[in-house]
């Protein structure tokens, strides 16, 4: 896997911006995405379950930017579907987005039923072959889920988007990704704001003349992860991509590494293995 500060190459040679813009729980996704695009973001991360693909699509269309400059990710909710359901779900997402293809399509959560897992993944491969997406990946897959996909013998996901921030750094999963050539995507890259009050981040930020959020996002870039911070605020949307003017040194990186909570209590979202039960 190769990457620069700006992009990472997904399986199949698809270049993905390493800093994107998330819209889960956006107050107004149309306005937020329009602002993000105006500020220079080119990668937008949405999902069917966010129920804002129509607003995202309107902002993409309204931006006047050529499709080739945009990188759009959406996710199919696979918890209660099989192959036809996954195909239909992806096509409905494309209709809402007003696009004939997305750049990356993710299975939003793993499913522990092997047959179900296989049929959903076959649907993803079919959508890739049909040109409805340029790359396919997964989200919230643990090593056991990735091993299961590998045992099926087909294509591996290009990317696995998981909860990842200084309190929950996912070292074991990242090692599995590295071994399998899977790009690590970070959701809640700012820990939904919960990590930003850490005094050590304030000290690092002061030294570099930036904010704690910028330190955390710079840390993601230097770790090689793809981060998709969300904001509804124009000032924070701008600041979150203003990361070029400083670099974290070894001591900074060690200090951020020390924020990881090894007891798992840094996690803020659901445990992937349990999401079926949460959703049902
Ligand atoms: N695949 C999955 O299962 C999954 C799950 C969750 C999220 N995601 C994706 O990941 C994206 C980001 O995750 P997230 O929205 O949960 O969390 P996040 O990006 O870590 O944090 C967003 C929160 O931080 C605040 N914030 C943003 N920039 C800030 C800054 N510079 N300073 C202080 N506060 C700041 C935002 O408030 P304001 O809006 O007021 O700025 C918001 O409350 C989502 O939008 C979604 O696209 C994926």
TrEMBL record:
User: Which amino acids does the record list as binding substrate?
Assistant: 108
Protein EC: 1.1.1.346
Q: Which InterPro entries match?
A: AKR (IPR020471), Aldo/ket_reductase_CS (IPR018170), NAD(P)_OxRdtase_dom_sf (IPR036812), NADP_OxRdtase_dom (IPR023210)
Give yes or no: UniProt keyword Oxidoreductase.
yes
Annotated NADP-dependent oxidoreductase domain residues? 24-259
| An MF annotation (GO) of this entry | oxidoreductase activity, acting on the CH-OH group of donors, NAD or NADP as acceptor
Q: Name one Pfam family in it.
A: Aldo_ket_red
Active site at 50
Q: Provide this UniProt record's keywords sorted from A to Z.
A: NADP, Oxidoreductase
Q: Which residues make up the annotated site Lowers pKa of active site Tyr?
A: 75
Give the record's family classification: Belongs to the aldo/keto reductase family.
Question: What is the name attached to this protein's record?
Answer: 2,5-diketo-D-gluconate reductase A
């Amino acid at each position: 896997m190769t990457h620069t500060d700006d992009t990472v190459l997904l399986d199949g040679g698809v270049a993905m911006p390493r800093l994107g813009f998330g819209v889960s729980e956006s107050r107004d996704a149309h306005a937020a995405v329009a602002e993000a695009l105006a500020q220079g973001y080119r990668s937008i991360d949405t999902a069917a379950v966010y129920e804002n693909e129509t607003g995202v699509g309107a902002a993409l269309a309204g931006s006047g930017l050529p499709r080739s400059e945009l990188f759009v990710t959406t996710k199919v909710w696979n918890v209660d579907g099989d192959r036809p359901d996954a195909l239909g779900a992806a096509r409905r997402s494309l209709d809402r987005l007003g696009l004939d293809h997305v750049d990356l399509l993710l299975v939003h959560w793993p499913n522990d039923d092997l047959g179900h897992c296989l049929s959903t993944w076959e649907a993803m491969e079919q959508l890739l072959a049909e040109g409805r997406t340029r790359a396919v990946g997964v989200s919230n897959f643990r090593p056991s889920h990735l091993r299961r996909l590998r045992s099926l013998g087909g294509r591996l996901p290009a990317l696995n988007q998981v909860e990842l921030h200084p309190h929950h750094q996912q070292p074991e999963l990242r090692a599995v990704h590295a071994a399998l050539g899977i790009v690590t995507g970070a959701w809640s890259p700012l820990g939904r704001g919960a990590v930003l009050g850490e005094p050590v981040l304030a000290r690092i930020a002061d030294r570099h003349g930036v904010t704690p959020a910028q330190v955390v996002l710079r840390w993601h870039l230097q770790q090689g992860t793809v981060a998709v911070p969300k904001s509804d605020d124009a000032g924070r949307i701008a600041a979150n991509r203003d990361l070029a003017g400083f670099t974290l040194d070894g001591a900074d990186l060690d200090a951020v590494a020390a924020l990881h909570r090894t007891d798992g209590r840094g996690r803020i979202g659901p445990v992937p293995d349990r999401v079926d039960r949460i959703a049902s």
